[in-house]
Amino acid sequence: MASLTEDSATAGEEQGGVRRRDFINVAAASFAGVGAVSVALPLINQMNPSADVLAEASTEVDVSAIAPGQAIKTIFRKQPLFVRHLTPEEIAAAEKVSTSELRDPQTLEDRTKPGHKQWLITMGVCTHLGCVPLGAAAGEIKGEFGGYFCPCHGSSYDTAGRIRKGPAPKNLMVPDYSFTSDTVVKVG
Amino acid sequence: MSFPWANEYKPSTAFTRYLDEKLPLPRFVYNAVGAGYPVPRNLNYFWNFGVLAGVALMVQIISGIILAMHFAAESTVAFASVEHIMRDVNAGWFIRYAHMNGASMFFIVVYTHIFRGLFYGSYKPPREMVWHLGLVIFLLMMATAFMGYVLPWGQMSFWGAKVITGLFGAIPLVGEPIQTWLLGGFAPDNAALNRFFSLHYLLPFVILGVIVLHIWALHIPGSSNPTGVEVKAEQDTVPFHPYYTAKDGVGVAAFFIVFATLVFFAPNFLGEPDNYIPANPMSTPANIVPEWYFWPFYAILRAFTVDFLFIPAKLLGVLAMFAAILLLFFLPWLDTSAVRSGHYRPLFRKFFWFGLIPCIVVLGYCGGSHATDGIVLISQIAAAYYFAHFLIILPIIARVETPKPLPNSITEAVLASNAGASLQPAE
Ligand code: HEM
Ligand code: FES
């Protein structure tokens, strides 16, 4: 027994203080570590949106029935989507503001499609903590800046859906969309 | 791990002797909460609340497992299944009301338990680990209660889930992917409801595990006591059983009287009526408020309305809310006074009763109210005081205060107060 322990204690000395057993320890631990990580990845990733949730990821909206000054609330990715037909006065009000006084500087052009400046299409999700702002349906209050007003913590958005007052940090999000014809919008 | 004079477990029958050899579970119980655990003789009723928290957890586990037998975690039927429990299941209303109000009782008890620790300096060495494990339990409880509240899938359930997971969205860069990952979608839906149910079932048992560690860590130095003077000799202690099992029994009875009053006479007093409206992702309730036990933290969250440097207001609110709890982990090093008990600390005591307690009551009131400008302003002042209390006032008090003279021992303190009592005229 004594000779055995002596052997293993001195076995690695010739290789500069690294014993053969150290190599085996490091190799075994690394192997197990890589194995554990490769099992953990799918276990973590299963929490991400599943295929059926992602499949609902695009919607078509017919905007022909929305008169100037009106807006509709529809659903995109299980969240409210606001489609608003701006009046010339609302467009003028949005364009009058200089971007330097905005918290999240963007012009109305940045937030609409070329040739479709009267169509303001945004998520109906307050960028503060996610409530649905008021102002899309008839009779709802539109807030100080004539756009949308979030009742949860009092964020006010203007006629371009830009944050003007209150705790929300960003403008109402504009989703990816395109006009497939003059009256049909494909969102997502 | 106890005092040398602790009673030793002596199995009396052949069966218990056999068991003691193979699996000494009775010995373990005897040493943990039986006659083998010596406890200071002067504990007051505030020392009841640890046991009460355990009772509340058992109530939640038993009522919860029964609810899970009738509940369906699927977003189109979850609300209806809770109504089914309320109307059709035999005694279903009783079990659900017990679980709903049991959560409130649990928080009432745990908050009292925490404030006991804050007043009597239980967080100080040698019990820092006990304090830290307690805070871990508190965080787990908050997560459990939040996820449980989502399950009935009413309006507050839905919007609460949206707002709270939205907090993670405030984290720069990775925030939104994290939020989507937590929810398994872009907004709370079936995926979120299912995982919340799974975790809501799991976490109470994790809590149970951490409670074992909490008590294990406690039994190394042993319980503190209202004088904060450590146990010095055998006459300072009495065995846990029968002395404190009896005293705790009185507390447990009182607990159930309050609990039963809520369940039978005011089951919805602490709840939000909006949660009896089925979840509607298209319309936000006029005023989203969490359950009462989250109000102070919600007030801190909403107190931040302007950006500071490059940090947006939303992120500041989230950071402050978490900091309000994480701060308590550092308490053993913020309050450096060698005297534990608030009884012997005249200055500390004033700031505790006239600073911290009113501050938290005000925060709670603000968190439960509609966020008008006035309410936000009051929350800002109270939130500032909350942080100042722990970060500035406590460290300063610890340096400048002259504590009152401490008794030499627990026994001396007890005998002194008995002597005082016997000077009173007889009835
Ligand atoms: C730490 C302990 C626990 C706390 C604080 C807690 C808290 C809550 C809360 C606040 C609710 C919402 C009640 C309502 O408004 O209807 C709830 C619901 C629920 N909990 Fe728990 N719970 C705990 C343990 C458990 C356990 C161990 C189970 C077992 C599976 C469970 C199963 C359920 C079920 C099925 C519901 C949905 C039915 C309902 O809403 O009444 N809970 N829980
Ligand atoms: S969620 Fe809209 S202001 Fe807070």
Outline the structure in words.
The complex is a heterodimer of chains A (188) and B (427). Chain A has helices at 2-10, 20-45, 51-55, 88-96, 108-111, and strands spanning 59-62, 71-76, 79-85, 119-123, 146-150, 155-158, 163-165, 177-179, 184-187. Chain A is of the alpha+beta class and 188 residues long. Chain A has 2 domains: 1-48; 53-187, 3-layer Sandwich (Rieske Iron-sulfur Protein). In chain A, the strands form 3 sheets. In chain A, strands 1-9-8 form a 3-stranded antiparallel β-sheet, with no helix packed on it. In chain A, strands 2-3-4 form a 3-stranded antiparallel β-sheet, with no helix packed on it. Chain A has a 3-stranded antiparallel β-sheet with strand order 5-6-7, with no helix packed on it. In chain A, strand 2 and strand 3 (79-85) form a beta hairpin. The longest helix of chain A has 26 residues, at 20-45. Chain A is elongated, with a radius of gyration of 29 Å. Chain B is an all-alpha fold. Chain B has a single domain (40-417), classed as Cytochrome Bc1 Complex, Chain C, CATH 1.20.810.10. In chain B, 64% of the residues lie in helices and 1% in strands. Chain B has 16 helices and 2 strands. Chain B has helices spanning 14-22, 25-33, 49-70, 78-87, 92-120, 128-150, 155-168, 175-183, 190-219, 240-265, 295-302, 313-326, 331-334, 346-368, 373-400, 410-423, and strands at residues 38-40, 237-239. The longest helix of chain B is centred in the middle third of the chain and has 30 residues, at 190-219. The structure holds protoporphyrin IX containing FE and FE2/S2 (inorganic) cluster. FE2/S2 (inorganic) cluster is lined by residues 126, 128-131, 150, 152-155, 166-168 of chain A.
